[in-house]
User: Fold this.
Amino acid sequence: MRKTLTALFLLPILIAGCAFPLNQSSLSTPIPISDLLINANSVYPPTPTPFQPIPPTPTAGPTITPEVIYESTSVVSQEPPATPIPKLVKPEGQINILLLGSDWRSGNGYRTDVILLLSLNTKTGTATMVSFPRDLYVEIPGIGMGRINASQEYGGFALTSETFMINFGIEIDHYMLTSFSGFINIVDTLGGIDVFSSRELYDLCSLPQAVDDYCYMPYGNNHMNGQTALWYVRSRSSSNDFDRTRRAQEVMVAIFQKAMSLDALSRGVELYGLFQNSVDTDITVGTVLELLPLGSKLMSDPSLIKRFAIGSGQVYNYVVPVSGAMVLVPDNALVNQILTQALEQ
Assistant:
């Protein structure tokens, strides 16, 4: 009951929310859904992908190493401010679900490098998505200051939920987590996806289509299988994390549209088994069924889905003295403005 029927309803809607613009303005999908109404009655064979990461026992603070160069080259030496974060008002009918994409691999631990909050409101019939950078430097209860993407590994959803409450004043109700292999399985089970690339990408690549170890993705619509979509989302040798986030959003929109083209809302039981091993979630089948009417309403009127992001305008770069790690410190006042606008409506 804690498996992937979520993927039949919540996954498409969660994924749709990843298409937020970096300037936090609302934007509907650039690809008409009618363009993707192809093979709607096809049957795609599943590729089972076991995914059961076990969080390690917390013994010490996370070891952080520099990984990215951000668009802003300024680095602030100021210590992160200890500004109290007020608890956000949770409107009646609101359900907050955290979508997490991890880099879990057997024996290597994992981090949640995709962090997206979906807020559904059954009373107003609306949905809001907010994306959080993986390198936000926050307080992880019982661990200390660290990157937000380490909280799930150190204490599972309970610790991640507490981390969001302490740092952002957000009450998280549920979560859904998938891995690299789970992501690939989802895309391939759908028969591939058509991604609208808003910018061309030329980057290092180990896929079969690579030429001299590089792959090229032009501007416009591109059909991708699971491996190609994962490369497109994760590639950053020629770009940075903010650009990678944009590409992740485009892929998520494509997954959402393809799932909807397969009539996921009415074929839930049939599709349930196809995604069973691709995600881990605490959302029950009963909860999913209760939300189906809202999902139908959101699909018929995309303007009811609002999209936000904690971006470069709400953070500053900071080098941790002990480790030398470059992290992103949230400007609490600016972050709170976005969260209030997104969630207290």
Observations:
- The chain has eight helices and 14 strands.
